[in-house]
Amino acid sequence: MSNGIEERLKAAFEQDAGSVRTHTGAYAENRRRLRRDRTRRRVAVPIMVAATAAAVAAPFMLANTLRDGGEQDAASSRLAPRVLDDPAKLVDPASLVRVSGVPGFRAEALGTDGSVLGRTPDMKVWRAGPGKGTPESTGVRARGGLSTGSGAFTWIKPGGFDLECRDATGTTRVISPQSAEAERPVWADGGFVAWSDIMRQPFTAKGCARPGKLVPGNVGDAVAFSAPHLWVVDPTNDFVLRQVDVRTGHSVKGPLPAGVRRHTMADQDQIWYAAANKRVFAWVADGKLRAADRQSGAQDAVPLPEWLHPGKKGAEATMTAGSRYVAYSVTGADGHRQAVLFDPATDRAVSWRGVVHVAGDWLLWSDGKDYKLGRLR
């Protein structure tokens, strides 16, 4: 493991020598943190969800609903996703847009404003959205770091480690004070951008205006963001999940989510996924999609077919949360795509033979080689 870490850091510092600055005491902390196995959650599409205006962190999920064990899932474990014949039935027909016209375009980010950001195989970045079904070139290329919303978008250029942000006026700035990790998600919500640097430290910035700051008191990996709250998990030391208000640094902690295992240095990484909105924290682990109410702690669980279980060889997965729905999508090594759309308010789940993303009141889904976008009813 240490060789892999050293190679990653060596590549990062050789690429942009001297540009990575650490906060006070970061060296010892990072050495300790990077020596242990990390739980990886590859969420390729940023989570764009409705912002909450609450000035104080919402009550955290009740501890006894999140502990490992199946007794809390018994009531809803009988649920199984039925096949959705047409996602267009869920959206306002007047808002429906077919996103097409650019060969090889793959949507990777959906904003709460309905904006769509994606790439073609040559790494070129394209934008579409309400009233703009044909993606338009942004003039940039990216290897990751895509997020979009409020007229702005972010990216990490090929071979680079800076998170760049372009606002609605076309002004571009680097907002990462000490790099960004292209293989981890970037979230844009409520005027904030959140990401992890190459040391897996979480950062946030207020839009594109100025460089971001380290999230106060962070210990662990960022897994979900719903402004102003960031969820950080530590499965190796404290074995907790923290909900952090990025404006104040105030945090509330609870146990690891059900299905998320404690780790030691000898354990193999567990792959799982998470998303959040102002009502629920949702995650996929141990063969189930679960959602816990942020106020009451009540938990629902949807069993997933084995093909949709996290960690399948060669598969890629995304998890997003909108104002109402939670979406989990898997693209297999053979290109086969399958998604589950879950409504925590009704405890109902449906499946779709394709990819689904949700953000705010918008729904985006694949339709053959194209995509369709619409505002939810």
Q: Any overview of this molecule?
A:
- Residues 1-6 and 8-79 have low confidence and may be disordered.
- It is built from 3 helices and 29 strands.
- Strand 21 (288-293) and strand 22 (299-303) form a beta hairpin.
- The protein has 377 residues and is mainly β.
- It has helices spanning 2-15, 26-34, 63-66; strands at 82-83, 97-99, 106-110, 116-119, 124-129, 132-141, 144-149, 152-156, 164-166, 172-174, 187-189, 192-196, 202-206, 213-214, 221-226, 229-234, 240-245, 251-255, 273-276, 280-285, 288-293, 299-303, 316-321, 326-331, 337-343, 348-352, 356-359, 362-367, 370-375.
- It has a 5-stranded mixed β-sheet, with no helix packed on it. The chain has a 4-stranded antiparallel β-sheet with strand order 2-29-28-27, with no helix packed on it.
Shape: globular
Largest sheet: 5 strands, mixed
Main-sheet strand order equals 1-26-25-24-23
Helix content: under 10%
Question: How is the topology of this model organized?
Answer:
Layout: H1 2-15, H2 26-34, H3 63-66, E1 82-83, E2 97-99, E3 106-110, E4 116-119, E5 124-129, E6 132-141, E7 144-149, E8 152-156, E9 164-166, E10 172-174, E11 187-189, E12 192-196, E13 202-206, E14 213-214, E15 221-226, E16 229-234, E17 240-245, E18 251-255, E19 273-276, E20 280-285, E21 288-293, E22 299-303, E23 316-321, E24 326-331, E25 337-343, E26 348-352, E27 356-359, E28 362-367, E29 370-375
Parallel strand pairs: 1-26
Antiparallel strand pairs: 2-29, 3-4, 4-5, 5-6, 7-8, 8-9, 9-10, 11-12, 12-13, 13-14, 15-16, 16-17, 17-18, 19-20, 20-21, 21-22, 23-24, 24-25, 25-26, 27-28, 28-29
